[in-house]
Amino acid sequence: MLQTLRKAGGSLVMTVPKAFIDQNGLGEGSQVELKLSGTKMTIEAPKRPRYKLTDLMAEMGQGLPHIEGWDDMPSVGLENE
Q1: What are the structural domain ranges in the chain?
Q2: Checking CA distances to 35, which of 14, 44, 49, 70 falls within 20 to 30 Å?
Q3: What's the pLDDT tens digit per position in 39-50?
Q4: C-alpha torsion sign, points 20, 21, 23, 26
Q5: For 10-64, CATH number?
């Protein structure tokens, strides 16, 4: 893919293709990794961590509050839809 460098202040800038942004869930303020090797520059989006609820709950340990009757509480929103 051919890109054109543009002047912005004292720097040269280029745009990032929308497909790359969408594919990697990037937006303004996102950070990417630049790797330079001779005449090559590679841009990598960091991998987003994948969390499992069981792992997150395990990290919380015994600090979870115990609520008596939790399962018997009435619905207050759209839980039953």
Answers
A1: 10-64
A2: 49
A3: 999 999 988 788
A4: positive
A5: 2.10.260
